[in-house]
Design brief:
By secondary structure, the protein is mainly alpha-helical. It has 15 helices and four strands. The radius of gyration is 40 Å and the shape is rod-shaped. One of its GO terms (biological process) is protein secretion.
Amino acid sequence: MADQDQKKHAASAQKLDRLRKDGKVPESPDLIASISLIILALGFFGASGSLGQSILRVFGVFLAYTGAPLEIGGVMTATFWVMSLLFLVAVVGVLLVGFLLKGWNPRSENLSLKWDRINPLKNATQKYGTKGLITFAVSFGKMFAVSCLGAVITLLFIDDLQISRGLEGHIWLAAQGLKRLILICALIFVLFGGIDFLIKRNAFLTENKMTDQEVKDEHKDNEGTPEVKQKRRQRAYEISSSRMMQDVAEADVLIVNPVHIAVALKWTREKGTAPMCIAKGQDLVAQNLKAIAIENAVPVHQDIPTARAIHSVCDVGEEIPPDLYAAVAIAIRFADGVREQARKSPFGGTS
């Protein structure tokens, strides 16, 4: 109980996927049985004509027996094939529903004999514990509802059976009552099966909640996977690229290669400080930096060696090294001259 109290977090998708691969999913035999009954009922309705004719022939042979065994044998064979087809449809329906609920996960571990599955003590706790009470309540509810409906349908058809004439009329009325009973029972089973599945699913999710430590361990494991690292790098690059594009508008000068490399510098002109690289890029990124610089009237200075040097030795946010002071000073003076000329010019502009 103490361990369960520590499980405060809902099971992650990764944990649920691991459980599913191990064959551990919320199971509801009642839901599977109810859906198979629906499929069986639909098949019964579809084959009711052939099945009814076979039943009529069987009763007719019994009531007017002529000593011809081949006739009744043929009728029984036809009835057998019709019933076999119905049950085959039901089996396929059960397999399909199981596949939809659990998915396709064939594993030798799921087929191997395990002591937990035949442990009488564990089975006793499942049958007589909380789960057992829930199962009993659902089963009792289904039995009670079906019994009541069966009694109601029987009472409704008693008068019709009394006034009907001939074997064929009796069998037709019985078939109509059976159809209604099967359909109503199927709907009741689906209702109780759905309730049972929701209860089982809620219990399954509660049982497999995660503790704080499990969440941390899973997060740590995910952090180490190549996929997560790649996504993190891609996200960081996108964020930094977006920030760089915004910072270019505040740059003092953009030094270009001129096509393949662009480096944006900003200098606060405070004592003891050097110009700082606030954005850089190659190829398409360089072209975008240049376009933004021109759009925001940032002077663009072409200096191939200096652009390459700054791009290779400076990261974004770092000051330029002392050996590049002279070359960068030329670029800063160029930018100051362009701005001064723009202020004096009646039309403004940059070069």
